[in-house]
Amino acid sequence: MKILFKNSTIMALDPTVTGEGRHLAVDGDVITYIGDKAPEDKFDRIIDCKGKLLTAGFYNAHCHSAMTLFRGYGEDLPLDRWLHEKIFPAEERLTHESVYIGSALAIAEMIAAGTVSFTDMYEKCEDTAKAVIESGIKANLARAVLSFDPTENMAENIRVKEAKALANEYHNAENGRIKIDMSLHAEYTNTENSARYLGELSREMGLIIQLHMSETESEHLACIERHGVTPAGFFLKCGVFDVPVSAAHCVWVTDDDMKIMADKGVTAVHNPTSNLKLGSGVMPLRRMLDNGVNVALGTDGASSNNMLDIVSEMRLAAILHKGVSRRADETRAAEMYPLLTINGAKSQGRYDCGEIAVGKKADIVLINMDSVSTIPSYDLNASLAYSVKSSDVFMTMVDGNVLYENGEYKTIDIEKVKHTFRKVQEHYFD
Fold first, then answer.
1. Residue 211: what pLDDT?
2. 237-275: b or e for each residue (b if 16 or more CB lie within 10 Å)?
3. Which domains, ranges and CATH numbers included, belong to the chain?
4. Would you give the distance in Å from CA 64 to the centre of its chain?
5. The pLDDT value given to residue 430
6. How far apart are CA 238 and CA 258, in angstroms?
7. CA–CA dist 163, 145 (Å, integer)
8. Cβ–Cβ contacts within 10 Å for residue 320, how many?
9. Cα 248 to Cα 205: distance, rounded to the nearest angstrom
């Protein structure tokens, strides 16, 4: 399908692409033209973008989508109690149906907030994959692997077997919309034996590794006590960082950890709302960026955040660190756009995505800049970082397909999803 976005205000990483009154053409799943003069081709659809901002699609680089089932469940507890007293027992009751419908609801929430791709670590991932396929969104999915026995034969670990099967069936499925990652849940839920195994397995299979790292001070210090090194040092020693890694949280990392991450190309995923809500702390974002670490944004699950709104996550990231440091220039509005877009694409190994440029995938978000909260706009970066709300998202396009437009889902029967979710949730907590 050929689509023309005319009269658009484009926000792009390339300043020569950014500007008002521009025209952008999509043919199939790629951007084929950007310019000041409308092409004379015939188009299947022409979209007038007057009063709207056209940007690259947004990335949620750390999520547990099916945890919409636990939204509002286990509140006001620190991470260790939240996990062991509430979440782990509840997850024992998960079914294929509940993971599917929980993921479907999460995807609907993310699409409406401009998310074109998300990184997900959980279980029963084939059911999340089904929801991804049906909706048209992109996702990097990983079966979380845990191992507490230092002598375990990891090839026989049921989670490893499930992870391999998932990769064999779904990696690069749907023309690459689905990618399968390996997951090493965390240092504290694994051993040196399992970490080394998963690092080598990921290298052999050519997969990215998702993991949690230095989320809490107690986790960070306990790792030093157990292994004599920080979690980053532990993963480095075990060869985990010899493959691409997306590390969620990174709240308590040291300067040496950041140098390791930058050198090894590890992505740090900033989850400010979840880390604040669980009382875990605040990632040192300024130092991360200054050390050259690729930083992306994530919501975490709906149980520890309550929302899967990556736009609000960006706004919090933009202002939080100013308050912590008491410096208004600690973070700058222009730094937020890459965190929301291309840095997330890099974390997922999607190098043909994440920016508005000819030849890149047509993952596009239109934002209403004529709402009461977005006018006037003196600076596009500032407007996006501080003023735009997810309710201002007018359209979400993935691979040239419109998934959401003006409040309407194009690929999801949202009333059916909500109805089924309520039935499953009522039974689940009956």
1. 98
2. ebbbbebbbbbbbbbbbeeebbebbbebebbbbbbbbbb
3. 2-57+356-409 (2.30.40.10), 58-347 (3.20.20.140)
4. 10
5. 55
6. 17
7. 8
8. 20
9. 22
Query: Is the separation of the CB atoms in 186 and 211 below 8 Å?
Result: yes
H-helix or E-strand containing 24?
strand 19-27
Cα 247 from Cα 62, distance rounded (Å): 9
Rounded alpha-carbon distances, angstroms, from residue 414 to 76, 101, 279, 334, 424: 30, 11, 34, 34, 15
How far apart, in Å, do the first and last CA atoms of the chain sit? 47
For residue 134, give every residue at least 6 positions away whose Cβ sits within 8 Å of its Cβ, in sequence order, or none.
104, 411, 412
235: phi then psi, degrees, rounded to nearest 5: -65, -35
Q: Can you give the pLDDT at residue 74?
A: 87
Q: Is the peptide bond before 284 cis (omega within 30 degrees of 0)?
A: no
Q: Which residues 6+ apart lie within 8 Å of 62 measured at CB?
A: 119, 121, 210, 246, 248, 249, 269, 271, 296, 298, 299, 300
CA–CA separation, 356 and 22 (whole Å): 12
Residue type present at position 172: N
How many other CB atoms sit within 10 Å of the CB of residue 226? Answer: 13
Cα 278 to Cα 216: distance, rounded to the nearest angstrom: 9
H or E element, residue 21: strand 19-27
Number of residues assigned to the chain: 430
- State pLDDT tens for residues 104-132: 999 999 999 999 999 999 999 999 999 99
Joined together, the tokens standing for residue 88 give: 């782990």
Where the chain has pLDDT below 70, the residues are: 429-430
- Please tell me the distance from the alpha carbon of residue 321 to that of residue 83, in angstroms, as a whole number: 27
3-state secondary structure 185-243: EEHHHCCHHHHHHHHHHHHHHCCCEEEEECCCHHHHHHHHHHHCCCHHHHHHHCCHHHC
pLDDT digits (tens, 9 = 90+) for 143-185: 999 999 999 999 999 999 999 999 999 999 999 999 999 999 9
Of 291, 71, 108, 87, nearest in space to 185 by CA: 87
Angle at 145 between CA 348 and CA 129, to 5 degrees: 50
Pairing of strands 364-368, 393-398: antiparallel
